[in-house]
Amino acid sequence: MSARRIDGKAAALALRHKVADGVAAFRETVGRAPGLAVVLVGEDPASSVYVRSKGKATVEAGMDSIEHKLPDTTSEADLLALVDQLNNDAAVDGILVQLPLPGHIDSAKVIDAIAPAKDVDGFHIENAGRLAVGAEAMVPCTPLGCLHLLKTELGDLTGMDAVVIGRSNIVGKPMAMLLLGESCTVTIAHSRSKDLPALVRRADIVVAAVGRAEMVRGDWIKPGATVIDVGINRIASDDGKSRLVGDVAFDEAAEVAGAITPVPGGVGPMTIAMLLRNTLVAAHRREGLQDPQL
Length: 294
Ligand code: NAD
Hints:
By secondary structure, this protein is α/β, with parallel strands linked by helices. The protein is 41% helix and 16% strand. The chain is built from ten helices and eleven strands. The strands form three sheets. It has a six-stranded parallel beta sheet. A three-stranded parallel beta sheet has the order 3-2-4, with helices on both faces. Strands 9-10 form a two-stranded antiparallel sheet. The protein is globular and about 50 Å long. Residues 142, 165-168, 170-172, 189-191, 193, 196, 209-212, 230-233, 267-268, 271 line the site of nicotinamide-adenine-dinucleotide.
C-alpha cells in the first residue's frame, strides 16, 4: 500500500472533542444545553442501533438527547403532530427522523414538516436549495464529513477535478454541491453514466457513494488521487462469516491513490460527529449567535 490511510475515526474523535468544547461554551453563554430530538418509528434493528449510538454521542458531547420511540403502527398524522410539537419546543435545536420510515408513511412529507432551522440531517428541500445556491444551510452529515476529510488531507481544493459516483439526495448530490462550493470541477456519475472507469481516471478527488461492493477498481484511479469511500456493503468472507467493505476495492486502489479512506473507520464515524456539529450550529443560529468555529 502506497496511499496514506485517512483515519476517519481519529478525525471524528477530534471533531467531537471540539463540539464538546463548543457545547460547554454555549451552555455558559445561553444557560442551557443544545437539544437533539431523534424520532424512531418501528423496530428496524439497524435503525435502532443508529439511534442508540446517536443518543450516546449526543450525551457524551454534553447535549440533551430527546428520544421518541414510536410503534410501527404510528399513523402519518401522529408522526406529523410530533414533528410539529418538536418544531415548537424551545429546548429542541435539532430534529432527526430516522429513515427508512414504515411504508404507510410518506417520508418526503415528514421531512418537509421539519422546521428547516432544526433540520440537522439537512434533507429538507429548503436546505437542499440553500446549499445549491450557496446560502447558509443545514448540510447533510455524510457529505459534510467527506468534505472535512478532504480539506484536512488536501487543504485548498480549488480547481481540482472531482468525480462523485452516485446521485442520491442524501450523499451524491449534496457532495457535488459542496465540492462545487470549494471551486472544484465536478462530475456527477451514476448508474446510467457511460464509461465510468474513464470518468474516474480523470479525477484528483473520487467520492464513491453507490452501495456496490468494491465496484471501483484500482486501475480506475489516477495515480496520487484522493479517494473517499462512502459505501457500506456487507459481503461473505472466506471464514464463512461476513465483513464490511466499501464501494472501492481498497487494496488495489491503495496501490495507486495518494490517500484513501478505509471501510470501516473512514467516512462512517464522521457522520455522527457532523450530526453533533450540525446540532451545535443549529443551536447557535436559533440563539442569534455566530456559528462556532469547528
Ligand atoms: P442510493 O442507493 O440512494 O444511491 C446510489 C447511487 O449510486 C444512485 O445515484 C445510482 O445512480 C448510483 N449507482 C448505482 N449503481 C451504479 C453503477 N453501477 N455505476 C455508477 N453509479 C451507480 O445510496 P446512498 O444512500 O447514496 O448510499 C450510497 C452508499 O453509501 C451505500 O452503500 C450506503 O450504505 C452508504 N452510506 C454510508 C453512509 C455513512 O455514514 N458512511 C451514509 C449514507 C450512505
